[in-house]
Write a structure and sequence with these properties.
CATH topology of the largest domain: Glutathione S-transferase Yfyf (Class Pi), Chain A, domain 2
Helix content: 25-40%
CATH superfamily of the largest domain: RecF/RecN/SMC, N-terminal domain
Largest sheet: 6 strands, antiparallel
Distance between the termini: 25 Å
Strand content: 15-25%
Strand order of the largest sheet: 2-1-4-5-6-7
Radius of gyration: 22 Å
Order of helices and strands: EEEHEEEEEHHHEEHHEEHHEHEEE
Structural class: alpha+beta
Number of helices: 9
CATH architecture of the largest domain: Up-down Bundle
Number of domains: 2
Length: 376
């Protein structure tokens, strides 16, 4: 999968841009605050129908503008698809080959991209909700149908929460919602669990290969209905999925009185968390800052590897100013690994000197919202 052409109108500080890209590495360089990250965000928005730095759609639209438009030709094998997104302050519209999409789920998944930005280095220290969103996005990228179950689960959670906030909650209605949550939540747990099983060996291998051959890094899932975390490490064995699901069912039955007392849902996939383990210890507390930075990037590369191996998909890789987050040794190892990647990659940097690639497909200079292709 790769982006052949990209057109941007009135997106952040990018007023009018038309670019053709390489299937390999595309390097964007320039001073800070010139528009490099905005181009990555435009691609991300074409993938997920939202930006990675904006809380509101209006934040993505050029100052004093009414709407922004994005369009890209995406190639997958011999297939060429034109994706389009139009953003207004209160709404968005998605198009596939010029035809409007009635539902977001009909569009999402047509352009798979994986993003690494400097803020990702702190994901281990972030709030659980942030990590859940990250995990949901990873699972969805591999399995787009996951979004349907997630949206339905969130809808039922809102309905159940409204009942719990009532002065005298209707327990027969709570029974109905719990039955739905059990069905939907079980599917979410199953998808997350299966994804962690697939991802774990890639995380361990990438971390060893690029960052630290002496350490063993694997993901850990913390269920709100289980006392002990699930460590996804084939060396030590893992708790069975059936046990995880049974514990969720039992917890739903036993947690009713607590939920009524608190007037909120106290367990379920929307309360779960995950993290990383480094040599059997919680990385959040025992890994150095340098190791945590390395882990966050290893996670992204492992996600690419997982998609390639499990789904035969090469996603688009978006790397924003990665050089600022790594020491020289890890920086060198990273680029040695990137040289072996076959995924289309967009990489931003303040200087071309920071990029140590054997072959660069295209180089673009970014200045004050203008993006110019430089001949090599």
């Amino acid at each position: 999968m790769f982006i052949e052409t990209l057109e941007i109108e009135h997106f952040r500080n990018l007023s009018s841009v038309h670019l053709e890209f390489s299937k390999g590495f595309n390097v964007l360089y320039g001073a800070n605050a010139q528009g490099k990250s905005n181009l990555l965000e435009a691609i991300y928005t074409l993938s997920f129908l939202k930006g990675f730095r904006a809380d509101r759609l209006s934040d993505l639209i050029e100052f004093e503008g009414e709407r922004a438009r994005l369009s890209a030709v995406v190639c997958t094998g011999s297939s060429h698809t034109r994706l389009g997104v139009e953003l207004e302050a209160k709404c968005r519209h998605a198009y596939v080959d010029g035809v409007p999409c009635a539902r977001a789920r009909d569009y999402l998944g047509l352009l798979r991209s994986i993003l690494f930005v400097p803020m990702d280095v702190g994901f281990l220290q972030a709030a659980p909700a942030s990590r859940r969103t990250m995990l949901d996005r990873m699972v969805f990228t591999l399995k787009p149908s996951y979004l349907i179950d997630l949206e339905q689960y969130q809808k039922v959670c809102k309905q159940k929460s409204a009942v719990l906030r009532a002065e005298n909650p209707d327990e027969s209605l709570l029974d109905v919602y719990d039955a739905q949550l059990l069905q939907l939540g079980t599917r979410l747990l199953e998808a997350r669990y299966e994804y962690m099983v697939l991802l774990s060996p890639h995380v361990a291998r990438v971390f060893k290969a690029i960052f630290d051959s002496s350490c063993h890094c694997v993901p850990v899932y913390k269920s709100s209905s289980l006392f002990d975390p699930v460590v996804f490490d084939s060396d030590s064995g893992m708790i069975g999925l059936d046990v995880l699901i049974k514990s969720y069912r039992d917890a739903l039955e036993k947690g009713r009185s607590r939920e009524i007392a608190r007037q909120q849902i106290v367990l379920g996939p929307h309360r779960d968390d995950w993290s990383l383990s480094l040599d059997g210890r919680q990385a959040k507390f025992f890994a150095s800052q340098g190791q945590q930075r390395a882990m966050s990037l290893a996670m992204k590369i492992a996600e690419i590897e997982c998609l390639r191996v499990e789904a035969d998909i090469e996603p688009v890789f978006l790397l924003d100013d990665v050089s600022s987050e790594l020491d020289p040794v890890r920086h060198k190892r990273l680029f040695e690994y990137l040289n072996a990647l076959t995924a289309q990659t967009f990489l931003t940097t303040t200087s071309k000197e920071h990029v140590h690639l054997e072959s660069i497909g295209r180089i673009f200079r970014v200045e004050n919202g203008s993006i110019v292709h430089e001949q090599q």
